[in-house]
Amino acid sequence: MASVRTMDPDLNLIHDLRKAGGDTLNKCYQCATCSIVCDLSPADKPFPRKEMLMAQWGQTERLVADPDIWLCHQCADCTTYCPRGARPGDVLAAIRNFIYRAYSVPAFMGKALPSPAALPILLAVPIAILLACVLMFAPTGVDGSYLFLAAGHTIDFNVFLPHSTVDVVFVGATLLVFILAVFGFTRFWKALKAGNPEVKMSFIPALIATMVEFISHSRFKQCEENRPRATAHLLLVLGFGLAFASTILVFVQTFIPHYIQAFFVEDFHPFFEVPASELPFGLANHIKILGILGGIGILVGTLMLLYRHWTDADKVGANGYADSLFLYVVFFAGLTGMAAWLVRLSGAAMGAYACYFAHLLCVFMLLVYLPYSKFAHMVYRTLALTHCRMIGREPRT
E strands along 129-252, which residues? Predict the structure, then answer.
């Protein structure tokens, strides 16, 4: 006698997917056009047809453990050729946003980031923290007034908000959040392994191959309808990479020697001297040059993505609130960082400090809210694509 399987649809999943941009889900009538036209879909059990069916039936447990969802790069080929306008690419993007929430620790943060109603609170918290840091730790003169308010003083962000305070707040908050995020990432990895236990490649070679593909964007470039998005995304990744490199160099060459001298050695010579030069526009050393190049990459990449969102939203897809919020925060992080540098050169002290404050606010939202926003796809997609290589889930092309 054939076994009977009872279906227990998760109506909350269906409701959440519709709110997150997957409102066309019920138009799908399983014609499989999406799976045929997608060059990134494996030959065996191709996506996104089966994911559309699982989503329609509210199969949450199967969807959150499905690595194929992350093989999709939102190229919109499936959406373009869908005869019913079901927009499978948008549905998969909505599923990925649901996964961030499903594995969030604490859970309330996963619910807050995709909710427009929570945005005032998400903004108010870092604003209050940064303002408190300025009021409590900004250096003061003999009369008790803040030095950054004094007329004619040299513009120095360390006088407005001491770098040591920024270090404590950002490093401490980021470490705490990432410790919590590890629980979610670990649960996700265990779910992937439980759903696909047969391994054909070990973890390290699969991870290396995934990182090479990630840096080159080789799969992303296979997309036809949305190929400009691959170029914009690559610029964004390179921009973040250069900005991260400049941050690491600042810690290695400046802050670590400073703290060693402050806490352990009375007269300490730094490991590396920061070379000075006569370059124009305040580009005193290679650290600033890397930072500026990173800022340009972030700005150009996000502007390209935003422009297509504004002018060709149907092809771009993934127009849900969470996707748009992330894109705008990244854009303003790059814009305010560049503005802080340029306004500082102009000599407008309060304008420079305002831009610097806004930049720190955007960076706080990117780093501290990372596990709960679309930024988390950096980790989830890496884990999923690594697992796909381990089990042999490769594009048929």
Answer: none
Which pair of tokens denotes residue 137?
């730790």
- Cα(116)–Cα(299) distance, integer angstroms: 24
Q: Is the pLDDT of residue 121 over 50?
A: yes
Three-class SS state of 119:
helix
Tokens of 42: 């494996």
Strands (E), 217-283: none
Q: In the numeric block, which tokens belong to residue 157?
A: 């962000």
Question: What residues have CB less than 8 Å from 383, skipping those under 6 apart?
Answer: 185, 188, 189, 192
* Residue 259, pLDDT score: 66
Considering the entire predicted model, what is its pTM? 0.86
- Greatest mean pLDDT among 96-105, 141-150, 211-220 lies in 96-105
What CA–CA distances, in Å, run from 347 to 12, 154, 350, 352? 54, 8, 9, 8
Residue 278's pLDDT band (boundaries 50, 70, 90)?
Answer: very low
Q: Are 377 and 63 in contact (CB under 8 A)?
A: no
271 touches 252 (CB < 8 A): yes
106 alpha-carbon distance from chain centroid: 18
Phi, psi at 73, each rounded to 5° = -110, 20
Whether omega for the bond prior to residue 106 falls within 30 degrees of 0, making it cis, is: yes
Instruction: Single out the residue of 159, 182, 173 nearest to residue 125, CA to CA.
Output: 173
Closest CA to 373 of 326, 327, 321: 326
What pLDDT is recorded for position 19?
81
Return the ∠ at Cα 51 (arms to 49 and 53), rounded to 5°: 75
CA 330/CA 175 separation, integer angstroms? 20
